[in-house]
């Protein structure tokens, strides 16, 4: 995919008005994301460019000016998060350079930083993490340790062993990284042996908390998956959503959730395996509006004076055993 430079016109430190991130500005360095994961809902936004990714080259200047102005007015937010619709650490030198510059800028301004990534964290960022360890809240997206899952669903992201190594390194720095297991692919990554393999490796990396949520379908995501997944896998996946209504979830009015009994059984399994490994499991409340609400904000709730919302507002076996084994992660031997 081609990277094109462009100028951002709208404010950078603008809080998104949804979910657990309500009230916390979310910074995207790019429009579109070079990882191009098969299930990515942001790819299907009408405003997302189709065959290229736009890099906001003027982000540092804009950000610097906004920090200056908001500080003068006493309105500088206490935290920022990267990112809701793109990955902070994408595989391109220009994006890496911008990520480092912007991270340094917000940390030097004293803001807490949360990021969620499936990418390679550049070497230059590690020194920054060490220097500002009290301000960094890292989250790594990792759904499965299976190479087949990685190849099919998110082949441009950092492979699972790399993400595990990064988790270990973040733990060693005392940054207490958490893991976002999203999207759980029903019938594939929620199989007991797959969950067990994932949690075993996470515990070895010092992970103490995960948030988890099943894949939600939207029309654009369904079209993407139909194009990019093997036909058999795609067809079988849809069975878990059969008969489900389109409904409003977070900002989209046309979302399908996996059937409730599938998600309930899956989350119960995640909790059970989590307990066995001493890992706390939170179920994402935003993407499961029909279940008891749990938040999965990347940091502990703070005093009411700080800029956090209280609550987000929202208005069987399918694969044969050979297929399933490919997704259990049992073929990965070189992970910690
Ligand atoms: S890394 Fe995140 S934002 Fe980027 S394509 Fe994958 S799901 Fe979308």
UniProtKB/TrEMBL annotation:
Cofactor: [4Fe-4S] cluster
Xref: CDD domains: Radical_SAM (cd01335)
Pfam family, one: Radical_SAM
Entry keywords, A to Z: Iron, Iron-sulfur, Metal-binding, S-adenosyl-L-methionine
Record-annotated Radical SAM core domain positions: 19-245
Keyword hit for ATP-binding: no
Keyword Iron-sulfur applies: yes
MF (Gene Ontology): catalytic activity; iron-sulfur cluster binding; metal ion binding
Protein name: Radical SAM protein
Organism: Thermosulfurimonas dismutans
């Amino acid at each position: 995919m081609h990277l094109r430079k462009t100028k951002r016109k709208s404010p950078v430190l603008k809080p998104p008005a949804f979910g657990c991130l309500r009230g916390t500005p979310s910074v995207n360095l790019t429009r579109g994301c070079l990882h191009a994961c098969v299930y990515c809902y942001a790819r299907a936004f009408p405003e997302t460019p189709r065959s290229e990714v736009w890099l906001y080259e003027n982000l540092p200047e804009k950000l610097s000016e906004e920090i200056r102005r908001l500080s003068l007015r006493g309105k500088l937010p206490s935290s920022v998060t990267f990112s809701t619709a793109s990955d902070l650490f994408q595989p391109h030198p220009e994006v890496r350079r911008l990520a480092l510059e912007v991270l340094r800028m917000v940390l030097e301004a004293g803001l807490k930083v949360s990021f969620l990534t499936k990418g390679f964290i550049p070497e230059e960022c590690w020194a920054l993490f060490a220097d500002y360890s009290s301000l960094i809240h890292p989250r790594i997206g990792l759904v499965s340790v299976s190479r087949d899952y990685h190849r099919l669903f998110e082949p441009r992201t950092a492979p699972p062993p790399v993400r595990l190594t990064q988790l270990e390194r973040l733990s060693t720095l005392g940054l207490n990284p958490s893991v976002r297991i999203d999207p759980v692919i029903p019938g594939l990554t929620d199989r007991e042996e797959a969950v067990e393999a994932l949690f075993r490796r996470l515990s070895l990396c010092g992970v103490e908390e995960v948030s988890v949520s099943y894949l939600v379908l939207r029309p654009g995501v369904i079209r993407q998956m139909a194009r990019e997944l093997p036909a058999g896998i795609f067809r079988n996946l849809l069975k878990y959503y059969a008969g489900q209504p389109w409904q409003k979830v977070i900002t989209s009015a046309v979302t399908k959730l996996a059937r409730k009994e599938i998600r309930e059984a899956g989350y119960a399994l995640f909790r059970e395996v989590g307990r066995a490994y001493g890992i706390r499991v939170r179920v994402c409340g935003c993407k499961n509006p029909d279940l008891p609400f749990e938040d999965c904000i990347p940091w502990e709730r703070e005093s009411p004076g700080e800029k956090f919302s209280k609550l987000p507002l929202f208005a069987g076996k399918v694969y044969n055993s050979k297929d399933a084994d490919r997704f259990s992660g049992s073929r990965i031997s070189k992970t910690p």
